[in-house]
Amino acid sequence: QTEIPQTNTHTKRLTHLPPLLPPLLSSLTQTSPPPFFQSSQNKPITAAMPEAPKPTQTSNGLTTIAIAEKNKRTLQFIEDVTSNPDDVQTQVLHEILSRNSAVEYLHHRHRLHGATDRRTFKKLLPVISYEDIHPDITRIANGDTSPILCSSPISEFLTSSGTSAGERKLMPTIAEEMERRSLLYSLLMPVMSQFVPGLEKGKGMYFLFIKSESKTPGGLPARPVLTSYYKSSHFKNRPFDPYTNYTSPNETILCPDSYQSMYSQLLCGLCQRTQVLRVGAVFASGFIRAIRFLEKHWQLLCRDIRSGTLDPTVITDPAVREAVLTKVLHRPDPELADFVESECRKDSWQGIITRLWPNTKYVDVIVTGTMSQYIPTLDFYSNGLPLVCTMYASSECYFGVNLNPLCKPSEVAYTLIPTMAYFEFLPKERQELVDLADVKLGHEYELVVTTYAGLYRYRVGDVLRVAGFKNRAPQFNFICRKNVVLSIDSDKTDEVELQGAVKNAVDAHLVAFGGSVAEYTSYADTKTTIPGHYVLYWELSVKGTTAIPPSVYEDCCLTVEESLNSVYRQGRVSDKSIGPLEIKIVEQGTFDKLMDYAISLGASINQYKTPRCVKFEPIVELLNSRVEGSYFSPKCPKWVPGHKQWSNNVKN
Ligand code: AMP
């Protein structure tokens, strides 16, 4: 990968977006409705799926009337499935169980013996986590093609950003799931167009990226869900559709070199700046990385715009060169170069999005969950344009959409689409699981899914709160991912991992100096550096007499990083989406002060536990005011694509 010139240690080269969420594939590209829920008489029992487009294409794409009609059908589909979610869910479960009745997991292990009703299913099937099916996943990964979890062949593994034993989780998937994901994408623009008309008249500037992929020992691809999606013909060969009309040619998205991909996508976005009506990326962190990239590289970009060429030392990928030169960068454009330069040269970058892309109506990025930490930065760069969170999805399953996309980020609620999977909800108090149609307003639940691809009563790990209803279907606020304490990008670090990493560092480096960590906490700092980085606050207890040299703390930083999971390390090494980890040594007594502060805010003395992660600004300020020394990881930790135990081919 090409090195980006670096100016300071924590603002590094930019790169891919995390695995995960989607672009906007509209229903207009949908050609064959997925075989969702057929009744036993083999008739569709609920809403009709959005159909394939009628041949009303004009040279510019579909007519406005055709688009409006298509949107109407899609919105009607949403009305229908949300009007009787319980019936749809019954059918979905029936379909999943009847198709898979003979698979080892259902038939032999849990003795379902062909039952497809909810009662028997709930009685016989346990609620599980990844660890419970890890042995099955390993068998499939090693090449066992017998029907273990699913009767359809496993087409690939989706590598989740959730981890197990430090490695990415592997989610089995089947070919037909691609249709289901496309269906969810197809709902987004019809929903959006109710609130922002005219989006079909321009383009979307989305920064979309692929990541490296590997093969399991049994030969199945293992890659993030979005990489799988962008490389699929669903995405690559999509027919013209004004709703999937992006400024980035496919070749720039599919470029495995993250620097060239980002550079070319920005260049294409700048060249088509007046046509851009919406901008976005999957996560807020990715979009901010793109702006940061522009901040560092606008001079290079302007030089190419001015000359109408691509610097051959910057863009070496032949497919990217050809696509950009034939599709976008047709001629020298000194006027545009002057304009971009004059804007980028200004002292403040406030409102840079609206300055460079003046017709932008909204920023399409996920800012729910841990991504909410990026809202102030996005507001700054976009001058307060609406931040739109369109969907909620995962490697296991795509879940739902936001039917009120212009709402405030804090009010975003996702409507789970009942055809996607069979959903259950584990109440906080851990009684019986409840069904989609039975959740209660204001209550919090952990999401449990049963999917077409062979996960049965699987705990996703997300906590959701019922915020309202669309017809009879609940809408959920995303509350948090269970146990995650630190996250900058798609990394998810939990308390146990952090604890282990701190212990490794102390054992390896501090003990020799008679040092130990008396108390610690952590903070995901996305404010002082782009990309953000993990900060650990350590209060030491030192028995030795030799002063601890700075290099020892730096070694501690690196050992902590080496001990964290592969998603974190990939973010540091390959994606450059996470900056070097920092340890801040705080004065003696700082954690007592922290406790005093918490108690002054109402915490109980008896129950007070040091939080292993802090978010509340006054607490962060308190910690920062007592820092005696600050040390950064001197280099990247080790990371290789694929899983530890695989020694096979890696692409990209
Ligand atoms: P992955 O398995 O890597 O695809 O990550 C999926 C996880 O990302 C979900 O289980 C959520 O924790 C998180 N996620 C996905 N979509 C959203 C969203 N719209 N808001 C907040 N978190 C999300």
TrEMBL record:
InterPro entries: GH3, GH3_C, GH3_M. The keyword Ligase applies. It comes from the Eukaryota. Pfam families: GH3, GH3_C, GH3_M. The keyword Transcription regulation does not apply. One of its GO terms (molecular function) is indole-3-acetic acid amido synthetase activity. Residues 1-34 are annotated as: Disordered. Residues 498-617 form the GH3 C-terminal domain. Keywords: Ligase. Residues 414-481 form the GH3 middle domain. One of its GO terms (cellular component) is cytoplasm. Belongs to the IAA-amido conjugating enzyme family. This is Indole-3-acetic acid-amido synthetase GH3.6. It comes from Linum tenue. The lineage of its organism: Eukaryota, Viridiplantae, Streptophyta, Embryophyta, Tracheophyta.
